[in-house]
Design brief:
This protein has 214 residues and is an alpha+beta fold. It has one domain: Aminopeptidase, CATH 3.40.630. The protein is built from 6 helices and 9 strands; from the N terminus they run ββααββαβαβαββαβ. A 9-stranded mixed sheet has the order 7-8-6-5-4-3-2-1-9, sandwiched between helices. The longest helix is centred in the N-terminal third of the chain and has 17 residues. The chain starts with 11 loop residues before the first strand and ends in a 12-residue tail after the last strand. The relative contact order is 0.18. This is GNAT family protein.
Length: 214
């Protein structure tokens, strides 16, 4: 899908096993289905915004609405890029890249979810590696950040594997409870030293203005 009014639809990231792109309505429906089928154990809550604590249909609808909202609310000075992650032709999750004042700070953060049926195969590492390449090699980032609940070891393993360094703790109120998140920070130098996943980026040049870049 291409649009001269919204060239981000032509942005595609490709890794050995995955394709990441802004979802059209058909792909977005598939993502909603993947979310409805479950993204984590019901006894846990890995997100600071507990969107996944809902019945399947409502969970899928929230993914649908949130993704469309990121497009509607996009500004060059504050943006959220929510890319569908496609594996073997099937949408399996979302990899986000978020920037506020990116043109000045050259710093952005990531967030993601992966369908429960597709976890444990290294796809989480590969999809985050894809947007790190986009940020550093494509957009000229200096730093990338991430955070996860302290009781989410899978996310911390991904950060460590990709070269992030610990960056302190923060607290958040989630579902009426005080939760602790561990922050991570990745410099361009550490990314260059640790990157191992080959990533191909297509369609970025026409998107620079939307990211606030010349």
């Amino acid at each position: 899908m291409e649009s001269r009014y919204w060239p981000l639809y032509g942005l595609v990231l490709t890794t050995p096993r995955l394709e990441l792109r802004l979802p059209d309505l058909e792909l977005l429906t598939g993502l909603a289905d993947a979310a409805a089928q479950g993204v984590h154990d019901e006894a846990a809550m890995p997100f600071s915004v507990p969107w996944s604590d809902a019945p399947p249909e409502e969970r899928g609808r929230s993914v649908f609405q949130y993704t469309l909202g990121t497009i509607a609310e996009w500004r060059p000075e504050r943006w959220v890029l929510s890319l569908a992650v496609v594996h073997q032709g099937e949408p399996v999750g979302v990899q986000g890249l978020n920037g506020t004042g990116f043109a000045v700070t050259r710093e952005a953060s990531t967030g993601s979810w992966l369908g429960l049926a597709h976890q444990g195969r290294g796809l989480g590492t590969e999809m985050r590696a894809a947007v790190l390449h986009l940020a550093f090699a494509g957009l000229g980032a200096r730093f990338m950040t991430s955070s996860a609940m302290t009781d989410n070891p899978a996310s911390h393993r991904v950060s460590e594997k990709l070269g992030y360094r610990p960056d302190g703790l923060e607290t958040a109120g989630v579902q009426g409870r005080c939760r602790t998140l561990r922050r991570w920070r990745l410099s361009r130098e550490d990314w260059e030293e640790r990157r191992t996943v080959p990533v191909r980026v297509q369609g970025l040049e026409s998107c620079h203005q939307l990211f606030g870049l010349p």
